[in-house]
Write a structure and sequence with these properties.
The chain has 3 helices and 21 strands. By secondary structure, it is mostly beta strands. 35% of the residues are buried. Keywords: Hydrolase.
Amino acid sequence: MNKIITFYPYFILFSFGLLLSCANQKNPIPLDSFTDKNKIVVFPVSDPKNIGRWKLNQEISDEFESSVMDENKWYIVGKFKNGKPFYKHPDKPNKKVWKGRAPSQFSGRNYRLSNGKLILETRWEPDFPFSDEIKKPVFGDPLPYQNITTACIIGRREFKYGYIEIKSKAADAPISSAFWSMGEKLEFDFFELYGGTNKPDKIHLDSQLWWSIRDWKKPITGKPTYTERKDVGFRVADDFHVWGIEWDEKGIKYYIDGKLFSEVISDEVTKWAKENRKKVKLPEDYNGYVATKPISLWLDQETFPWHDIPKTKEELEAKSPDNEKEDGIVDFEIEYIRVWQKTN
């Protein structure tokens, strides 16, 4: 494992003195960067000296070093009860829980913790007890749930603004590996990566970052008020990469492996929304920068019918290593999720 963590088990007094000696320097390391639990210092990959004065929010962040999922922090969608998956959010028992994008369905069995990583699994599983619900989605055609199960993990705590960082590797298959979030009438998609399509005309998706801000209020009703699709210069399923999102009331800065990749300010988001949502009548004072509310984090995998749907286990596993082509499982691997917020 190459997690960017520095431990100080025997040098706390020395470190305290060093911090005091730096008090008059331009960019001192704040005392509260030390966590009470493990005495860990960890900063964003793009800001190793912590010029931004970030403080790690341990209530949201997770290193996935445990052998069991922290269910006080995460809701595992589709856990089994009496031989079938059930869909009830522990904090919102009266709210309908999404079962996944058909034909794939979320299963609470499709994850594991291994070697300090959370691994979400997409499985070829035609004998799964699929829901018989066929519902017209907001986008696309109604399809039955069948053959493919995926994973979904939802954060149980909300936060507003900060620096969000994930180190992950997308599944090498025609399935999305997604890190996103939901708030009140708000969807903020950090990435929806499509790691290994089988279609020659879709090969560009293997190296594409797709991120979006979506307004779920009428009349937009889930369409993006801002979105970007950009080539990142590497296949997203080939190796681990660090994706960082700096988010505040002024806009978004997007980092990949510690380097600034893209940025947009709130006024540019509104301009984009008005130029690209002309089919709906927007108020004159419409503000497209709706990412101004608390959010909870989501990790999942989904089929994207408009791109490609694996029709067989062989199609799902086409890009898997030879010794793994028969298990019917492809993995989206997450080494950590970290969220920092300003110390002031």
